[in-house]
Design goal:
It catalyses: L-arginine + H2O = L-citrulline + NH4(+). The protein folds into two domains: about 325 residues, L-arginine/glycine Amidinotransferase, Chain A; about 80 residues, Arginine deiminase (Pentein), CATH 1.10.3930. Helices cover about 35% and strands about 20% of the residues. α3 crosses α6 and α4 packs antiparallel against α10. A five-stranded mixed β-sheet has the order 9-10-11-14-15. Strands 1-20-2-3 form a four-stranded mixed β-sheet. The two termini are about 10 Å apart. The chain is α/β, with parallel strands linked by helices and about 425 residues long.
Length: about 425
């Protein structure tokens, strides 16, 4: 096994990246929350307390927890990384040719901690004017004092999406929504220049800076194990993105099967892991309202190989209702155990909205879930799954559960 390797969804979790909520969530207002992809405002202090308990739960299982803001701060000690971040944060197409160089110069004088805070937490005009005189810029002059000069990245809370590790490589993902596109810059800098990653050998499955409309988000990607990957085609992950990542996996010999599920394109089905996650070697917790989905199995065509562009794809489509069979076949199993609690339609929809299906396995049959989904948690326990509950009263307002908030970098294979 390589030093950085995620061999499954449920093998022993060894190392994970998370992001503790901070200033960026204080930028949410009733006016900005929808643009920043939130349905509600969080009580940030309580959300931080809940996230601390989430991190403690991970550590209690022997998992090493890496914090994204700390990784970024340490990365910014490298000159090339600092210049990369500055170049991609301050752009004249966004800030105008009059303001962009001034903003870059001001930011370049900040220490690593302050610059990391700016990149993730954003910057208002009022805060800028505490650092420098206002430059002659139409863009800045037309802003109110509390308008955001640099947009925050509150969705970094959901560490899974912009970066996901699949076997011996990582996908730094092209994000579908404008509010999340800059998240790829953070992860790209960390993986290129942070000492923990810069010298480690690993493959690259996606390029968030150039893949454009071929979007893939980590909440849609499940590493089934044994060379198989399951990807949901949601409102955030496109078929083009699925085919591109499959071809790169096949070219490297890191995977030999990708099963793609065609999800409803709705916010309530935002990512695959909001409706379906793996909890042991053959078991999935699944939302009762998921229905019978079309699915596809992608394999490399015999005799192709070499660079990704040379790999040809075999694509087999399955009738609706055959998705479970396709997943079982990819895993080499006779069948799956699908865990769906019996409850009325409205209760099931509420628990799914509250991330009842978004379980994070820390080892086979041991999962972390929110305490706000009691029916799902009780059913998992009745099914022989050990459940570690963490508070989700505030974190759950963000529409992402424990799996969403974690980016495994080292996990055992099946």
């Amino acid at each position: 096994m390589n030093e950085l390797y995620v061999g499954s969804e449920v093998g022993r979790l060894r190392e994970v990246i998370v992001h503790r909520p901070g200033t960026e969530l204080l930028r949410l207002t009733p006016e900005t929350k929808e643009e920043l992809l939130f349905d509600d405002l969080m009580w940030v202090r309580r959300a931080q307390e809940e996230h601390d308990q989430f991190s403690e739960a991970l550590e209690s299982t022997g998992t090493e927890v890496l914090h994204l803001d700390v990784l970024l701060r340490e990365t910014l000690a490298v000159t090339e990384a600092r210049n990369f971040i500055l170049d991609l944060t301050f752009d004249e197409r966004l800030h105008g040719p009059a303001a962009a160089p001034v903003l870059r110069q001001v930011a370049s004088q900040l220490d690593g901690a302050a610059l990391a805070e700016l990149v993730i937490g954003g910057l208002t005009k009022r805060e800028l004017l505490e650092l420098t005189d206002e430059p002659r810029s139409i863009v800045l002059h037309s802003m109110g004092p509390d308008d955001l000069v640099v947009a925050p990245l509150p969705n970094h809370l959901f560490a899974r999406d912009a970066s996901c590790w699949v076997y011996d490589g990582v996908a730094v993902n092209s994000m579908q929504k404008p509010a999340r596109m800059r998240e790829a810059v953070t992860y790209e800098a960390v993986y290129r220049w942070h000492p923990r990653f810069a010298s480690a050998p690993f493959q690259r499955w996606a390029d968030g800076l150039s893949d454009a409309q071929a979007t893939v988000e980590g909440g849609d990607v499940l590493v089934l194990g044994n060379g198989a990957v399951l990807i949901g085609m949601s409102e955030r992950t496109t078929p083009q993105g699925v085919e591109r990542i499959a071809r790169r996996l096949f070219a490297a010999g890191s995977a030999d099967r990708v099963v793609a599920l065609d999800l409803p394109k709705a916010r309530s089905f935002m990512h695959l892991d909001t409706v379906m996650t793996m909890v042991d070697e053959r078991s999935f917790i699944e939302y009762a309202g998921l229905g019978e989905l079309p699915s596809y199995t992608i394999t490399p065509r015999s005799g192709t190989g070499g660079t990704p562009v040379e790999v040809e794809l075999n694509i087999a489509d399955h009738a609706p209702g055959h998705a479970h069979r396709a997943i079982a076949d990819a895993l080499g199993l006779h069948g799956l155990r699908i865990l769906t609690a019996e409850q009325d339609l409205h209760s099931a929809a509420r628990e799914q909205w509250d991330d009842g299906c978004n379980a994070l396995a820390v080892s086979p049959g041991v999962v972390i879930t929110y305490d706000r989904t009691p029916t799902s948690n009780a059913f998992l326990r009745e099914s022989g799954i050990e459940v570690i509950e963490v508070p989700g009263g505030e974190l759950g307002r963000g529409r992402g559960g424990p799996r969403c908030m974690s980016c495994p970098t080292l996990r055992d294979p099946l």
